[in-house]
UniProtKB/TrEMBL annotation:
<feature type="transmembrane region" description="Helical">
    <location>
        <begin position="368"/>
        <end position="387"/>
    </location>
</feature>
<dbReference type="InterPro" id="IPR017896">
    <property type="entry name" value="4Fe4S_Fe-S-bd"/>
</dbReference>
<keyword id="KW-0479">Metal-binding</keyword>
<protein>
    <submittedName>
        <fullName>Cytochrome c oxidase accessory protein CcoG</fullName>
    </submittedName>
</protein>
<keyword id="KW-0249">Electron transport</keyword>
<dbReference type="InterPro" id="IPR032879">
    <property type="entry name" value="FixG_C"/>
</dbReference>
<keyword id="KW-0411">Iron-sulfur</keyword>
<dbReference type="Pfam" id="PF12801">
    <property type="entry name" value="Fer4_5"/>
</dbReference>
<dbReference type="GO" id="GO:0051539">
    <property type="term" value="F:4 iron, 4 sulfur cluster binding"/>
</dbReference>
<keyword id="KW-0813">Transport</keyword>
<keyword id="KW-0812">Transmembrane</keyword>
<dbReference type="GO" id="GO:0046872">
    <property type="term" value="F:metal ion binding"/>
</dbReference>
<dbReference type="InterPro" id="IPR017900">
    <property type="entry name" value="4Fe4S_Fe_S_CS"/>
</dbReference>
<dbReference type="Pfam" id="PF11614">
    <property type="entry name" value="FixG_C"/>
</dbReference>
<keyword id="KW-1133">Transmembrane helix</keyword>
<dbReference type="GO" id="GO:0005886">
    <property type="term" value="C:plasma membrane"/>
</dbReference>
<dbReference type="InterPro" id="IPR051684">
    <property type="entry name" value="Electron_Trans/Redox"/>
</dbReference>
Length: 502
């Protein structure tokens, strides 16, 4: 592959050598730095538009408010999560699990049908690297050839200034990303306090910002495509999800092979024509010989698809784990096909079966199974989410407390209640015994108004008539009322413990 030491290394062809090593690791086992040519073309324009929208949403996300609350908050420290207007607490862990499972199944389904389209178009690593940091690199150091020359040049003033400027800008954007990332965890209000108030008051926050900044800087300045090659698990298990009908960025080997440069084709063709002119063969034989002597496909072996690849691979070697389907090779190849008068699409979005057999199966049993499972989990998740009560109540008997005979002759059990308000508005809550139970509920602590996204605790006695208790573990039901409406019924156990005996 091409490296700083060998910038115009010839593309490997007619060889299986590429299977023995990763393209970004050279024969000595060292990092082969990828200098990707600046992409241009239709797909790159579309991908840029998608990336700009995603970047705008990402940076604006912590500051967009719904009912005064952030659009997205993943506060692991306080175990509080807000997703698009829905508040999740530890009691909603089952919904979080279902949501994550739905997301995983969505990725599995899309991967089985469309390959790694997520990686090339919407993955944060790709969006930041290709649409932000690499563009900064192009602006400061130039295109890939200029970057190679700069890397090989001695440390003179020009190199020091360009490298220093690039790293300063990289660090600045890494700082902005780190602040945004932290805002998704602790909220924009807390982040603003860390930024504006004295550092001594927010030591932990200050350290967190700097750690995240350094991590992001190293990822985009040094680790780069290695994140996709080694660190990301998605690229590792994609081989278990794709098959010959999966649509992906693919080289049409039936149309492209055998490869040959324009010079090779011209030389082979003219040698036969020259033989006819010398009288060795007839013109018809020369034409037939010229066709036989030029058994070349449409690939002119220019290497444009290789030098533009940010992953440092040759797409003509087939589907590879390193390929993130960024479509840069499609744009580069289409441009070359236009220049030599050949049809576009030598590299395109297609499947292996479409190339070999001319068709692909749109719906297979495996895909149908993924869709059925995905739809089922999504339906359960949506149903539970939409029918979730705005107030969650947890009831527990006071541990270590036995049943008591109260002064009025009733038998009492002491309970603790914790009531969570999951809405963005204050709520009133009441507790009462369900109808049909001979007794009453006596609050020790009054239930005041429960603030938005907050909770209240209360202790209360359930006092029952002795004749109503039919066993040592007697089931009772307590109703939770909000705004005059019963929103939940909680079942618990009333333990008599022999207190029913006078």
């Amino acid at each position: 592959m091409y490296t700083a030491a060998d910038p115009l290394a010839k593309v490997e062809k007619d060889s299986e050598e590429f299977r023995d090593h990763i393209g970004t690791i050279n024969a000595q086992g060292k990092r082969a730095w990828v200098y990707a040519k600046k992409p241009k073309g239709r797909f790159f324009q579309w991908r840029s538009l998608v990336s700009y929208v995603l970047l705008a949403l990402m940076f604006a996300g912590p500051y967009v408010r719904i009912h005064g609350q952030p659009l997205l908050l993943l506060n692991i420290l306080e175990r509080k999560f807000i997703l698009f207007g829905f508040v999740f607490w530890p009691q909603d862990f089952y919904l979080v699990v279902l949501g994550l499972l739905t997301m995983i199944l969505t990725i599995v389904l899309f991967t089985s049908v469309f390959g790694r389209i997520w990686c090339g178009w919407t993955c944060p690593q790709t969006v930041f690297m290709e649409m932000l940091f690499r563009k900064i690199e192009y602006a400061i150091e130039g295109d890939f050839q200029a970057q190679k020359q700069l890397a090989l040049s001695p440390w003179n003033a020009n190199k020091i200034i360009r490298k220093l400027l690039k790293f300063i800008v990289f660090y600045g954007f890494s700082f902005a990303i780190a602040n945004t990332f932290l805002a998704y965890i602790i909220g924009s209000d807390e982040l603003w306090k860390i930024i504006t108030e004295p550092v001594a008051q927010h030591i932990a926050g200050f350290i967190a910002i700097n750690i995240f900044t350094i991590v992001f800087f190293l990822v985009f300045a040094r680790f780069r495509e290695q994140v996709c090659h080694f660190a990301c698990p998605y690229g590792r298990f994609q081989s278990a999800l794709v098959d010959n009908d999966t649509i992906s960025v693919t080289y049409d080997f039936k149309r492209g092979e055998k490869r040959g440069t324009l010079g090779t084709r011209k030389k082979a063709g003219f040698s036969i024509v020259a033989a006819a002119a010398a009288g060795g063969v007839t013109q018809a034989e020369a034409s037939a010989g010229q066709a036989a002597a030029n058994p070349y496909g449409d690939c002119i072996d220019c290497g444009a698809c290789v030098v533009v690849c940010p992953a440092g691979i040759d797409i003509r070697n087939g589907i590879q784990l390193e390929c993130i389907q960024c479509t840069a090779c499609i744009d580069a190849c289409n441009k070359m096909m236009d220049s030599v008068g050949k049809p576009r699409g030598l590299i395109r979005y297609t499947s292996f079966n479409s190339i070999t057999n001319g068709f692909r199966s749109l719906m297979k049993w495996r895909t149908a199974g993924y869709m059925t499972l995905w739809f089922g989990v999504l339906s359960v998740f949506a149903g539970l989410l939409l029918t979730r009560e705005p107030i969650e109540t947890v009831l527990l008997r006071q541990p270590g407390m036995l049943a008591q005979r109260l002064p009025d002759g009733l038998i009492g059990n002491l309970y603790n209640a914790k009531i969570f308000n999951k809405t963005f508005d204050s709520q009133q809550a009441e507790l009462r015994l369900a109808s049909g139970i001979q007794g009453e509920l006596r609050l020790i602590d009054s239930l005041a108004t429960i603030g938005a996204q907050n909770f209240a605790e209360a202790r209360f006695f359930v006092a029952l008539k002795p004749e109503a208790i039919t066993g040592q573990n007697f089931p009772v039901e307590i109703e939770v009322i909000s705004n005059g409406k019963v929103i939940a019924r909680k079942k618990t156990v009333f333990i008599s413990g022999g207190a029913t005996t006078p």
